[in-house]
Amino acid sequence: MARIQLRPAQAAPSAPLLWDRRRSAVSPAAHEDESRLLMLAESVGQMGHWHWDIRTDKVTWSEQVFAIHGVDPAAFPHTFAAALETIHPDDRGAVVAAFDGAVRNRAPFEFDCRIQREDGVRTVICKGQPEYDVNGAVTGLFGVLADVTDAFAAIRAIHDQKEMLGLAAHLANLGHWIWSEDENRLSFCSEELARIHDLSPSAMARFVHPEQLAAAAAPCDRARYIAAVEEAIAGPRAYEIEYQIESGRGVVKDIREIGQPIVDEHGKLRRFIATVQDISETKRRENELARAEAALQESNRQKDKLFSIIAHDLRSPFNTVMGFADLLAGSAKELPRERVAEYARIVRSSAGDVQTLLDNLLTWACIQIRESGLKFAPLDLAVVSARSVEPLMHMAEEKRISIGSDITRLNVAGDADLVCIVLRNLVSNAIKFCRPGGSVRLSAAALEEGRFVKVTVRDDGVGMSHAAKADLFALKCGTSEAGTLGEKGTGLGLYLCRDIVGRHGGEITVDSADDGGTAIHFTLPTGK
Predict the structure, then answer these.
(1) Four-point Cα dihedral 293, 298, 303, 309, nearest 10
(2) What is the distance between the alpha carbons of residues 95 and 87, in angstroms, rounded to a whole number?
(3) Is residue 447 within 8 Å of residue 503, measured between CB atoms?
(4) Would you state the pLDDT for residue 492?
(5) Which of 43, 225, 336, 406 has a Cα at 20 to 30 A from 84?
(6) Cβ 504 vs Cβ 524: under 8 Å
(7) Res 3 pLDDT > 50
(8) DSSP string spanning 316-328?
(9) Cβ proximity of 185 and 209 under 8 Å
(10) What is the spatial order of strands in the sheet that 402-405 belongs to?
(11) What is the pTM of this model?
(12) What pLDDT, in 10s, does the model give residues 293-321?
């Protein structure tokens, strides 16, 4: 068992006696009253006193000390070793060191430790000082013992609650400030508020009045913020406002603030409390959601238009095919060969229109369904343009239109099938609006910055008005203009071109005039 190693005490004539054992004459009744009051006070305060006579190793505990330890006075050996046995094993070394230091240094002592009871562990605070004889030698230790288990538990609960509130405030990006009338300044600014402003707590201390917080608001929001606070004070009533600040690092943040003035019974402002929340991330997500919702609504509108096009433009050529097919089936033998050939050409033309429409519809559907994005790959633009124009040569020959290309070996990055669709639609559209004997020419050139290639499809056809140019790439139903020989269109092709070029990160534009000639330009990335 660890024991205090006592050292010879030096004489200390000035050392006070803790108490004088030579009590003055006190009546037994008075002494009994004092003892009863002391016991009552100790019981109420969960505090007791004790004494250790070092010379005889006798330990004396008051009734309340026994109650705190949960020990039967009749079974207690009244020795230091027995008292030390009641201390938690992990704390005994510190207790012995505290007593030894008090004797060695002839100084008061104070410590807290845990004691073991049959019903559990309690926490106590022990405070005392050495006792001296008339020669100044240390003869014992006297002290008081208080059970602080409940108090420590309450402190820990408060500390835990504070930590939890701090964590919740951090996770919610929530700070707060308090203005006190007594101090006429901001009496408190939380650490989280300092973090929201991107300032250190010490730098945040320079904010001594709400007006300085208002100064942190963005200029466009400052007057509105001040008005909200002033109206709340005049009410008095709570307020809620959203505004922007520029933080100490120059970052613009979205803020939501809720405040409440507190007045006394006479209506005088005493305190002002406000919570400040950084809602920048929430705003960003709301904006993304709004953009996604707008895109979805636009997509739905475009699909509605598409279904209208399908209903109108797909039915019309099929009606033509069916009508002339019925005529040929019923009257082919009676009709002149020239008329039969003419009807056959009409049927073929209508079937071609259907095929073009179906090709565009299938391309559009594939783009919508393809979640993984475009199949980007290096492309030789000369090869892709030749592949795109080849199926259109028969159409050009019927109108005696020449198709030429100045595109040489020039590399771009894109989806080969979709780039073919763009070129095929643009060249087909140029043929449609060229007069017989006209020409269509393709060209391409790298732009100065080297990140994009500009492709041009130019014709010497009828041109278009300013109003027609403004609405050229919109999705239209039944409004496509007829070609120079009455060729019909669907209004889907150019809309599809704009969509595909946009998905490649490029742009599509048109140059044209009423007096003839049209050039449509679009850009594709080089992949550099």
Answers:
(1) 170
(2) 8
(3) no
(4) 73
(5) 43
(6) yes
(7) no
(8) HHHHHHHHHHHHH
(9) yes
(10) 402-405, 439-446, 452-459, 518-525, 508-512
(11) 0.47
(12) 988 887 787 677 667 666 655 666 677 77
